[in-house]
């Protein structure tokens, strides 16, 4: 018998240390990566690529993983860390930023491949290669943040910084991400998971 699944429909920014908020978002991103990986494996096994699915995946990765999540890291957490003495260049933050950039390039590749489906025989391969690149990159990236960078941040940032970031995360969600966007992204994630079955 299936156990009752506990769906988190509301996870963001309310309470909890800022790095805990970001780690909860990592869990959602990892769920999307698992779904995308299944869909890509199906294409590699010969299934016709489902353009609508890959378009939705791009919407989620851009809207949630990049704008909402990497936005908070780059504009708030990493920024405050550099204000507290972490190097901007040549350190772990620089690595994280360059991985965010590499991720954007992979997402562009998926989007371009999806747009060319039906018109260009190389489109499916472009989707597969970029999706695989993104999945590998982001899993490793999330591992580094969870296990190395965020613990470093929590050791370096005092209570005042933590309170500042918690408040700024709330503001970022309200102003930069926009009301209702989180809910829309969670709905999209649900569709990605259902569509990969
Ligand atoms: Fe990151
Ligand atoms: Fe992250």
Concise account of the structure shown:
With 197 residues, this protein is mainly alpha-helical. 78% of the residues lie in helices and 0% in strands.
Structure description:
Mean pLDDT is 92; it is low at 1-14. It is built from 6 helices and no strands. By secondary structure, the protein is an all-alpha fold.
Distance between the termini: 19 Å
By DSSP, the count of extended strands is 0
Based on secondary structure, the structural category is mainly alpha
Low-confidence stretches: 1-14
Number of helices: 6
List the helices and strands and how they pair.
Elements: H1 18-44, H2 51-83, H3 92-116, H4 123-156, H5 159-177, H6 181-195
Helix pairs in contact: 1-2, 1-4, 1-6, 2-3, 2-5, 2-6, 3-4
The chain binds fe (ii) ion (2 copies).
The site of one fe (ii) ion (FE2) has 6 residues, from helix 2, helix 3 and helix 4.
Keyword list:
197 residues, mainly alpha, binds fe (ii) ion, disordered N terminus
